[in-house]
């Protein structure tokens, strides 16, 4: 539980690496606690990703009812933004 609460995205991490680690911790916690729900993971992601992902987060918040945003929607939006950024950097 403590590991999940203290986890923050590092400047050097890709969104994939960060989310893989965070979801790994969350899955371990689910084995111990059945009440660990996706909305808690979504909330954690929304407040701990780096500022460069703020546009995706704001877009999600404005186009969806915040409590109804799914984990899949968050993951897709953040992966898409990172992919666009990486594509631009490769040019």
Automatic annotation (TrEMBL):
Protein name per Swiss-Prot or TrEMBL: Retrovirus-related Pol polyprotein from transposon TNT 1-94
Organism phylogeny: Eukaryota, Viridiplantae, Streptophyta, Embryophyta, Tracheophyta
